[in-house]
Fold:
Amino acid sequence: VQLVESGGGLVQPGGSLRLSCVVSGYLYNNYCMGWFRQAPGKEREGVASIDSDGTPTYADSVKGRFTISQDNAQNTVYLQMNSLKPDDTAMYYCAARSWSCVSWASVTYYTYWGQGTQVTVSS
Structure:
């Protein structure tokens, strides 16, 4: 399984970005896709996840601002990010595993990772 992220960039506070993660390979019928981020000097943290039933889960810090979705026909998972803040600045990673989204925010439970896409929120 390979994951390729895109869509990062420089945006002003209050702006929006949509990240994409294209999945190639087979994840089985029960899977969990996650978005994580890592800022310099900080640990990687879970941002959002979506399971094979389409059920999303979010970190408290992004609830109401970020939306995770998936297009199974395109094998793509999206992260729509609105009302961006400077604290959202980080490298964003897509991750996948072939089991449920229990403990979705735990980095160690994911088998596959993308290379990351940089998001910078600054005026």
Observations:
- The chain has a mean pLDDT of 96.
- DSSP finds no helices and eleven strands in the chain.
